[in-house]
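User: Just a sanity check before I run the rest of the batch. Below are the structure tokens for the first item. I only need the designed sequence back.
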């Protein structure tokens, strides 16, 4: 019998007053941000809420943290992207956004920080924000002043549920209604490749730590792995019994974690290309899974895993062998 990789750790019941839609670790820290339909983003440390962000009365659909761990980015259903200073977490409850961008109707469902190297084009800032839209495009905004920079167009006017930026900042992936997944070159704004292996809506896209692979999750109950360097499929993982709402690769590339409407959190071994562990702590749909991340200064070799969902709870999983 194989040894367990992760053990169920701390559980935070009723962490939010309603569905928790997204979770994101602060790089290099044991601190987790969660957000959802109760209109609040909360910061957790050692199972305790140590701060929260609120600016408006609309559900928050995504949260991201820059690689320095100093800024948070939230998207909400009032069509606004907000950037927050989270460097002093004790003062979060009274914080106001550093920047607020009105992205237009339904144009802020998912958003991500984009950190890229300058290629000598002074008209394009080095640090950007990417946001998904309901019309098959990804909008890029200046992190400095919020001005619109450009759009990445899939040529299909579909709602984009999912958005990811490669860790090296060179690629942006998006997907949503329909079965297609699109990968763009950040600098040139051109479409690099399209993946069409799913047969239903795609809920989640996530890059590997080396930016070479893309993990996608879909209503077709599948998780797929793609090679973005060559534009080719790698493998398909089957085992969930409902829509797969979130999938993310372990920083080492050895595992994938996934969460589903079937209430399960699964861990998949990439060498075996099979599910090696199933966790059943949630009582309702699992909306988001997130591995702990390293920062530029702190390397986390044995990351924790977090999951959040419709049951308003946060579950943490402690590494045993992973």
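Assistant: Here's the designed sequence for the first item:
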């Amino acid at each position: 019998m194989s040894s367990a990789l992760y053990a169920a750790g701390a559980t935070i019941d009723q962490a939010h007053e309603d569905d928790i839609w997204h979770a994101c670790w602060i790089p290099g820290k044991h601190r987790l941000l969660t957000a959802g339909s109760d209109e609040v983003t909360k910061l957790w440390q050692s199972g305790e809420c140590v701060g929260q962000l609120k600016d408006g009365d609309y559900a928050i659909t995504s949260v991201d943290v820059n690689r320095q761990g100093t800024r948070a980015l939230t998207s909400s259903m009032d069509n606004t992207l907000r950037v927050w200073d989270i460097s002093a977490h004790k003062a979060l409850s009274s914080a106001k956004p550093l920047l607020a961008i009105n992205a237009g109707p339904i144009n802020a469902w998912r958003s991500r920080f984009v950190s890229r190297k300058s290629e000598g084009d002074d008209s394009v800032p080095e640090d950007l924000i990417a946001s998904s839209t309901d019309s098959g495009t990804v909008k890029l905004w200046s992190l400095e002043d919020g001005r619109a920079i450009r759009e990445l167009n899939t040529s299909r006017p579909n709602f984009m549920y999912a958005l990811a930026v490669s860790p090296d900042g060179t690629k942006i992936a998006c997907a949503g209604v329909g079965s297609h997944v699109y990968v763009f070159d950040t600098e040139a704004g051109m479409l690099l490749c399209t993946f069409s292996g799913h047969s239903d809506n795609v809920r989640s896209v996530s890059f590997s730590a080396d930016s070479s692979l893309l993990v996608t999750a879909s209503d077709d109950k599948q998780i797929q792995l793609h090679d973005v360097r060559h534009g080719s499929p790698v493998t398909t993982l089957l085992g969930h019994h409902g829509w797969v709402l979130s999938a993310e690769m372990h920083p080492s590339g050895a595992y994938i974690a996934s969460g589903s409407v079937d209430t399960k959190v699964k861990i998949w071994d990439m060498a075996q290309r099979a599910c090696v562990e199933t966790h059943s702590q949630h009582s309702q749909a699992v909306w988001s899974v997130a591995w702990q991340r390293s920062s530029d200064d702190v390397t986390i070799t044995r990351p924790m895993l977090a999951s959040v969902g419709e049951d308003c709870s946060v579950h943490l999983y402690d590494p045993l062998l992973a």
